[in-house]
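To the team - glutamine complex, inputs and output below.
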Amino acid sequence: MKKLSQITETFSESVIREMTRICDEAGGYNLSQGFPDFESPKAIQEAAIRAIQAGFNQYPVTFGEPELREAISRKVREYNHIECNPKTDITVTCGATEAMIATLKALINPGDEIIIFEPFYENYGPDSILSGATPRYVTLYGPDWHYSAAELAAAFNEKTKAIIINTPNNPTGKVFSKEELAEIAALCIKWDTYAIADEIYEHILYDGARHVSIASLPGMAERTITINSISKTYSVTGWRVGWAIAAPEITKRIRKVHDFFTVGAPTPLQHAAAEAMTYGPEYYEGLKNHYGEARDFVLGALRQAGFKCELPQGAYYVLTDASDIMARLGITDDTAFSRKLIELTGVATVPGSSFYADKTKGSRQVRFCFCKKWETLKHVAQVLTKLPR
Ligand code: GLN
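Output:
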């Protein structure tokens, strides 16, 4: 038989999704893949049912139903201070995942470089390979996940096509400050580089942290692609409704890629999404408060069990240093440790190495997500006490 594609040979399956499969087989507690195990809001479920019954069951407008694009445009003007024309500046996609790969496919030529902060969300690695971009990594240093301004500046050159900024950040919980984003923006302008902002956790913030969209900074609207989705904000990760916002010339390219990739995101769910985007501030406060309490509770349990970790400022993950427990168990790598943890406690995590290009950097880390109901979190706190002290 002829050999399969060389490109797809160079990356492995998603470790995050694999951990979910292992966890389901073991009947464990899934603190690996970032999705809620509680119900999505009743109102959004009912809106979807109404949309199906109202007959929104055929292909959508390929780049997004007009109602949803208008709702997105209103929302980003208010919350993100981004002006965007729903007719020319928005592409609705199958989740933020498709928005990211469609954006990279729209921008990248062979030989182009993209800058990625490391640790990074797993998908950005294969995304670079699939788009043909050469990634350059800029380290985020724990425990506060700062970057070095000198290292960031040194990563830019004539070949730099884009920088990916994920804020609030998965897996670190870092929320990029306005000053940091201004520094990144200045480098983007200096080197004529696009900014790709993945802002999917924009409503999940703690301790007064504020979300700033890099597209709202002077000179950045025309060179930023802002990516988002309803998955995390409305707890509907299985619906696959996301979008990319960009200036018309960039949007035209993203729309072409999107059309041939997937044609469109599910029509009735786009209508329900448009309705969800009219929820008042109390909805977002409720979400933030639940996750804030969950964060404090889970971090307490993890520290008690011997994991080293700092309070994340946003998103719903904590990347922990597991060295002490690994030493007690005589385990030297993160993947073996994750498997042992499921065996001993039933708790599934994501091995730290899946967030690094240089796998050794994550070999003492594991990521827990805490977007779970109280019942799950309390069970987890209890079973973690089984670990050797
Ligand atoms: N963002 C989620 C995580 O990091 C997973 C998203 C996905 O699996 N598509 O766990």
